[in-house]
Structure formats: C-alpha cells, structure tokens
Design goal:
The chain has 488 residues and is α+β, with helices and mostly antiparallel strands. The protein folds into two domains: 1-32 and 49-139 and 172-388, Thrombin, subunit H; 390-485, PDZ domain (Pdz3 Domain). Helices cover 14% and strands 30% of the residues. Strand 6 (186-192) and strand 7 (198-205) form a beta hairpin. The radius of gyration is 23 Å and the shape is globular. Residues 1-119 are annotated as: Disordered.
C-alpha cells in the first residue's frame, strides 16, 4: 500500500483500523532507480523523520518518487459506511501496487491507493543490470579458474561432476520444499493502464477455475481500460480480466482468460490460529524480480493499518498480520505462507523509514503487513459471486483521533447527519454519541481506525459484543453487524 496515513485529530471517520504513527507503504510503492548508486553526501545533523506505511503491490518500470500520505486532518466518514475507495500506491502506478500504495505505489505510507506518481516501465533496466553483473562476475571467475589451473604444479585438475537432480530435492517441511511446491501457483501480474504506464505485482491461484487473488492496488490502474498479463513461474503468460475489486479491503479477484488445465490452488490456512513467532515465507516479485522467496516470523497480530494514495484519498483498513520477512514493492498481492505452505495472508504494505516532499524511501526494514487470509477469503467469495464488495457496519460515526483511549462515537456524522444511524445496529444496541468503545469482543480498541479494522474482519450478520464507557461507567452491548454494499 503506498499511501501513508497519519492520525487525524478532531475529525470523525468510519470505523477503520488505526494506522501506525507512520502509515505503512504498499509493497509496490515506487522506488528510486535501482541501477544507480548515489554518491556519498555530507551527513547533516540528525532530524526526526516520520515513518509511513506504503502499499507494495507493484513496481512501475521506471520507478518515480513515491507520493506522500495526506498530512492534514481527515474528513469525517460514517462508521457504518466504508470510506471512499482508497488510492493505493500500487504496482502499476509508480505510487504503489499495480501502481499502488502498502498492504504498492509510491505514497508516503504507500499502503493502498490506485493514484499516485506513475512510473514508466523500466524494471527491465534493473534486470539487465543484474544480468550484466552476473555475466561480469562469471567472466572474472572463469578467467581466474583458468589462470589457477594453468599454474597448477601438481599435474592434476579436479573437475566437479554435475549435481544429480535427485540430490536437489528437499524435504517437504523445509523452506526449500515449501517454496518448490508453492512457486508454480504464484504469478507475477503486469498491469498496464490505457496510457501505457503500469507496474508489476503478485498474485496466486485461488481455485482450479482460474481465479487469481491479489491486491486491488496491483490491478486498479488497468481495471477499466488497461491490460492485465499473468506470468507463471515456468514463464507461460496468460491474459486476465478483473472479476471484482474491493478498494476498502484492498482485495481483487482476476480470472485467466484461457486458464490452463491442471491449475493447483494454494492451500489456505487459518489466520485466526496464527501465533506470534510462527515462521513465515513470502513469495513475490520485489522490484520486478519474480519468484523471489524470503522468510521471517509473525511479529504481531491485529496490527491496525490504514493505507491510502497519499494525496488525500480515502483509506483501506486492515487488522493486519505483521511479519519481518523481507517485503518490497512488487510483493503486493503475493502470499504469506506458514511453515506448512498454507496461505495465512496477502502481503500488502510495508512501513517506510521516512519521507520528504517529493521522495519516499520504500524498502524492507522488517516491517511488513499482510491482510489475514480469513478476511481476504470472505471478500474473494463475495467478489466471485456478485462482483461487488459488501462491508459490515455498526451504524455509527467514530472519531479518527488516535489518542482517545478508544473509538469515540462522534457528535455528528458526515454532512451533519446523525452520528448514530436511526434503527441501525448501534442504535438498536443503545449506543449514542459520546460513548467510547473500548473492546470489540475480546480485542482492546484504542482508536476509531482500530475499531474499523476489527469490524472488517467480520461479515454482515455476525453478532459481536462491544464494551464501552459512558459518563465514567463501563457497559456492554450485543450488536448484530449491518451491511453496506459497494465502494462508492
């Protein structure tokens, strides 16, 4: 997600997961030209920097600087109505995945968001540079080997026989074994907008019918009039089309136009049963380098992450899985696997080290965020069924100030409407303006964004328990979540 979001003070917004002080950047957030090495510059006195999360969906060919997340107060949004579609800095857009921001593109916390600086296709330069370096290294090594052999006074030369293919097999429980089994089901997505610009992201086979699961910010730039190409690890390419997109969740489902036979969907795990410290394996195309495998652990759960386009657009929200597996622009939409090879999340955003006007440093610092697969699966099933997302709501507008010790129900909703919708879920449960929601079932709620992130891990019709305070007293209420259709 390539948009960084900072806490908004004194404003209300739909219940959405809180964002770290510095919003995460989409894995696909645009990066500076990888082929160049800046000359050392004088080191100025240290100044505090602001971190941001950036979406990492895709990597534009010629990475532009990443867009920055909005820095002012957010506009109010209804807690029972998903905010306007987030604009991720995604793969296709220089700003993030597919062009978009965290949870792709280049906004400061580049988590989500289809808009943002777009990069012209230029990853080929990076790949070419890498290839050239490899050839040079190979040439030097070969020359040295010849020189050494020519001066060998022992009168004998040792020649290594090619490895037996059987010797290269690894046990299924090893990282190598898991990667070997998963790679054929992971794809690199090339999203080209109608203007010819785009980016690269990742996805994976969801079912045998040819559905591919990825981030919305990876494909947003090419969803309407662009072109989507999916490349498997064996190099075979297929055209694809969008089945449905959920901007708020930053999830999208594609369908291969002519799916090959024998597709193997990745096994889906249970993200609710993941524990901090569990091993993780991430697969994707960081900076366009397809089929890259990295490892780490689950660093935290239920991490409230909001990502946007970094230019004032609406945000996407998730109660994310945090991992220290290396994730970079281009990883967006790819699977986060457990030690058995089951998908437990969709890599979507990264935390950036900081940013300044016109520039964003987006790269792995060991703080990556993934959409829990249980949530992503609920969204994917809805998109495949109807093509449109459905969001669970409580029917109340909450403040987005992160320093309230809970989710405060605002005095007014968007446009001067009632903060608690009449006859809505919150109203029927007896909640009213000024109440501070402190727990959602057993999860502690410290802000409006955190509440929204938790609500969105459920489905409409789910019955939940809200703990809140009013006039210094604590009470609980049983709430049956309502629903809101679409992203508009």
């Amino acid at each position: 997600m390539s948009t960084e979001n900072e806490g908004n003070e004194g404003t209300a917004a739909e219940a959405v997961p809180s964002v770290p002080s510095v919003p995460p950047v989409p894995a696909d957030a645009p990066q500076g030209s990888p082929g160049s090495t800046p000359a050392p510059a004088p080191v100025p006195a240290e100044e505090p920097t602001t971190q941001a999360t950036t979406p990492m969906a895709s990597v534009p060919a010629t990475p532009p600087h990443a867009p920055h997340a909005p820095h002012g107060p957010q506009s109010a949004a209804e807690a029972n109505w998903p905010p306007p579609p987030a604009v991720p800095a995604y793969a296709s857009h220089g700003a993030g995945g597919g062009g978009g921001p965290v949870w792709g593109a280049p906004p400061q916390p580049q988590p989500y968001g289809p808009e943002g600086p777009r990069r012209k296709r230029g990853m080929g330069g990076l790949v070419a540079a890498v290839a050239a370096a490899a050839l040079v290294a190979g040439g030097i090594g070969g020359a040295f080997g010849y020189w050494a052999a020519d001066r060998d006074t022992s009168g004998s030369t040792t020649v290594s026989a090619p490895a037996n293919p059987q010797d290269l097999k690894r046990d299924s429980g090893t990282v190598a074994g898991v990667a070997a089994k998963a790679l054929p089901s992971v794809v690199t997505i090339d999203a080209q907008g109608g203007d010819g610009e785009g980016g690269t992201g990742t996805g994976f086979v969801y079912d045998k019918e040819g559905h591919i699961l990825t981030n919305n910010h990876v494909v947003a730039s090419a969803a309407d009039s662009g072109q989507l190409t999916v490349t498997f690890s064996n190099g075979k390419k297929y055209g694809a089309e969008v089945v449905g997109r959920a901007q708020g969740y930053d999830v999208a489902v594609l369908k291969l136009k002519n799916p090959p036979s024998g597709l193997t969907p990745l096994a889906l795990g249970n993200s609710d049963q993941v524990a901090v410290g569990d091993s993780t394996i991430a697969i994707g195309a960081p900076f366009g380098l397809s089929n890259t495998v990295t490892t780490g652990i689950i660093s935290a759960k239920n991490r409230p992450v909001a990502s946007g386009d970094g230019s004032g657009g609406s945000n996407s929200y998730m109660s994310a899985l945090q991992t220290d597996a290396s994730i970079n622009p281009g990883n967006s939409g790819g699977p986060l696997l457990d030690a058995r090879g089951a998908v437990i999340g969709i890599n979507s955003a990264i935390q950036s080290t900081g940013s300044s006007v016109g520039q964003t440093q987006a790269g792995s610092i060991g703080l990556g965020f993934a959409i829990p697969i249980n949530q992503a699966t609920n969204v994917a099933q809805q998109l495949i069924k109807t093509g449109k997302p459905v969001y669970p709501v409580i029917g109340a507008t909450v403040s987005m100030d992160e320093k309230t010790g809970g989710a405060v129900i605002s005095d007014q909703g968007a446009g001067g409407t009632e903060a608690v919708s009449k006859d809505g879920p919150a109203d029927r449960a007896g909640l009213r303006a000024g109440d501070v929601i402190t727990k959602f079932n057993d999860t502690v709620i410290d802000s409006g964004p955190t509440l929204i992130g938790e609500i969105w891990t459920h489905k409409p019709g789910d019955r939940v328990t809200l703990t809140y305070t009013r006039d210094g007293r604590t009470a609980t209420a049983q709430v049956t979540l309502g629903e809101r259709n679409g992203d508009s």
